[in-house]
Write a structure and sequence with these properties.
Layout: H1 7-23, E1 38-40, E2 56-58, E3 61-63, E4 67-69, H2 79-93, E5 96-98, H3 112-115, H4 118-121, E6 126-131, H5 132-140, H6 145-153, E7 158-162, H7 165-170, H8 181-189, E8 196-199, H9 207-214, E9 220-222, H10 231-238, H11 255-263, E10 271-274, H12 281-290, E11 295-299, H13 301-309, H14 311-331, E12 332-334
Parallel strand pairs: 4-5, 4-11, 5-6, 6-7, 7-8, 8-9, 9-10, 10-11
Antiparallel strand pairs: 1-12, 2-3
């Protein structure tokens, strides 16, 4: 029996019951709506608290959650504010972070303040970012020390190299590869002493490419899979009519496909960042659960809009993501295939 001695509580209960009656019809579901990926196990559940975390080691650093703030760019006029907000978040909640393309830092320090976020990030993992076209150019000219100096200047833990041939092909002013990315990577890695990751930028990587990367002395791979921001499609909007190229924007591999490819390959001690096409936290949770190797869940565009507004908006967004992730861990179990 409910105790109605507290007028305030009685009003709250009456309001809630009224809401339930009003919303019941709108809340109807059918058997077709069920998410068939998971077993729902409420008997083993506790609600997450503010002290709860999901610790994981990445690049020999301890993260509180398996979440990676993936590389992104907000334009020159916004880059510093965005990067600082993201770094503050990663530092406060012990996440990892990748910078947007640091190409502008290869020749001078004019834009260094836009990317120099180590003081906000603390000791959390930070990866600089550079395109394979710039790596190819510097390998060819024997000037890879510029890359190493850039990584050192940013106090980064390593480097992400993005491989994006279709984006460059669509881009009106895009770079052209004169040797294969595999050959460039092989030569570049002979000169490095820090961890290097490779990622795609929205179309993912096929099984032969993943196999080739696993054979290199890389630290790991970020997916950049199909289904999220497609930079080939983005570039197509900037150029002239490209009717013959347009079918290529649909070429690629989803994160789910890439997990399946990797689970059939010897992954050794490589680390992975699952990114691209994850529409919600359950998509990310499913793929992390499926991959048979250490992995973080990478998010880029999801963080971008709140980071452009303010740190408070970004933090509120992250805390909702965190709560959903921990709830998924506590109440869901991936079904066996």
């Amino acid at each position: 029996m409910e105790n109605n001695s507290n007028p305030s509580l009685s009003h709250e209960l009456a309001q809630r019951k009224g809401d339930h009656i009003e919303l019941a019809k709108r809340a109807r579901t059918s058997s077709q709506d069920v998410d068939v990926r998971f077993n729902y196990e409420p008997l083993f559940f506790t609600h997450p608290t503010l002290e709860d975390c999901w610790p994981i080691t990445f690049l020999k650093k301890e993260l509180s959650y398996p979440i990676w703030v993936s590389s992104m760019t907000g334009g020159a006029q916004h880059a510093e504010n965005i990067n600082v907000n993201l770094a503050r978040l990663a530092g406060k909640y012990k996440l990892g972070m990748g910078l947007g393309s640091c190409r502008a830092l290869l020749h001078d320090d004019e834009y260094l303040k836009d990317f120099d976020v180590r003081d906000f990030l603390g000791d959390q993992p930070l990866l600089a970012n550079l395109g394979i076209a710039q790596v190819e150019e510097l390998v060819k000219s024997g000037k890879t020390t510029r890359i190493h100096e850039m990584v050192k200047k940013l106090r980064a833990n390593g480097l992400i190299i993005h491989i994006n041939p279709l984006q460059e092909w669509f881009q009106p002013e895009g770079d052209r590869y004169h040797v294969s990315p595999l050959m460039t990577m092989t030569r570049f890695l002979e000169t490095t002493t820090y961890p290097v990751f490779v990622k795609e930028v929205g179309q993912g990587l096929g099984p032969k490419s993943l196999q080739a990367l696993l054979n290199l002395p890389l630290a790991g791979v970020e997916f950049g899979a199909f289904g999220g921001t497609n930079f080939s499609l983005l570039e197509s909007f900037r150029g002239d009519h490209q009717i013959h190229k347009m079918p290529f924007v649909k070429v690629g591999h989803t994160a789910s496909e890439m997990v399946s490819f990797l689970n059939k390959l010897p992954m050794g001690d490589k680390e992975f960042i699952i990114s691209g096409g994850q529409k919600n936290i359950l998509d990310a949770f499913e793929l992390k659960s499926k991959l048979q190797a250490p992995a973080l869940m990478g998010f880029a565009s999801a963080f971008l809009a709140p980071a452009m507004e303010s740190f408070d908006v970004l933090e509120e967004y992250f805390l909702g993501m965190r709560d959903s992730l921990l709830t998924a861990r506590n109440v869901l179990e991936l079904k066996e295939e």
